[in-house]
Each structure stands twice: as structure tokens, then as C-alpha cells.
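S.,

Sequence below, as promised.
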Amino acid sequence: MTGLELALVALVVCVASCLQGAIGFGLGMLAAPVIALLDPSLLPGSIVLLAAGLTVLGVLRDRTSVDLRGTGWALLGRVPGTAAGALLVAALPPQALALTLAGTVLLAVLLSVCGWQPRPRPAAVAAAGAASGLMGTATSIGGPPMALVWHGSSPARMRGTMSAFFLVGALMSLTALTAVGSIDGEILRFAAVLLPAMLLGFALSGVVNGRLDKALVRRVGLAASTAGAVLVLVQAL
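The prediction came back faster than expected:
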């Protein structure tokens, strides 16, 4: 990767980290497609590593707003989803996996726009956690399922709860990816280089947070979900 390409990735990571710091997700959706176009071998490990650090900061900032019960149900579903995602990384062609997952996200967004708003009941949250675990481990894009099921929460509650869920989920994904040999020294070095950009983006999100309301969070979440899925589709095709 050239210096110019690395600078571009750092800029995207900064913007994506700001988005995740503001709405609770977004790092993988915006940054993963760009990295995939330049060097697919760096995914999903590099983004999962950065997400782990970003979610630590998110939990610390919004710790008083975390829905522990909802996080627990989501993590219950995340465990089998993470295992399935790691197996898919090792077994399926990247294009087939990307097309399937992106299509699923777009369908969920379409249903939400048409008025489908799943209540965050235990079964729905656990199912979303499973989908997020599978998508997050296989493609580093695990935010859309959780955003759809938690979009009715207040901005702080959504950010804090998603950060808590993604923190534990990222650790699960890293363990699973390490087990199948998808984390190496090159990925660790790449993530370390992008760490300052991630930290700057999170700091900037503190300025953005005061300007968000519940309706805006929902619109941004749906728009980001759609953008992420479309980028994955374009990349796969």
C-alpha cells in the first residue's frame, strides 16, 4: 500500500470512527470496503482490532446509559454467530459471502423504511446478535442488525449499549479469527498505524453527539446501513 493510499485509509477510518462514536456503529461499514479495494488480505482482522479499541472508549464515555439486559441477550446470540462467521471466512468464496450478507442488510433496511420496526424483545435481540456476530466476524460489518433492533433507543443508550455489545463481540471475533489463522503480524502493524486516526475520529464524535436527536439517529443509522451494504455489493461485483 502506497503512502497516498494509506493516507486515504486513515482519513476514512477517522470519519468512520467519528460516525461510530456518534451513533454506535459505522467503522466497519465505511472503512472495510475501502481497505478491501486496496488490500483485501488486511480484512477483517485490522478493522476488528480497531473496533475493539473504539468500543472500549465508547463504553467508558456512555457507561451510565448501557442496557445490560439487552446487551446480555445480544451476546447470547453473538456466540454461535461468531463461530459461524469464522467458519464462513475459512470455507466460502468472499464474493458469495459478501453478496449474501449485503442482500440481507438491504432487505432489513427496506422492511424498516416500509414500517417494520422490530421490538427489542429478547428473541429479536438474540437473533440480531447472531446475525451481527456472523457478519462482523466474516466481513467486519456487524452494526446493521443491532441498529435495526435498537434504533428506537435514545442516542446515548444506543451508543453505550452497542459499544458494550461490540466490545465483547470484537474480542470474540478476534479469538475466532486467530483460531482460524486470520490474524498475523502484518494486520497487527496495519491496525497500529491507523490507531491515531481512530482516536481522532472518536474525539471528534464528542462534538457531534450534542447535535443528534432520536429521529436523526434512526435516519443516520438506516442510511449508514444502506451505504455499507451497497459498498460491499459493489466491491463483490
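The mean pLDDT is 82.

Coffee later?
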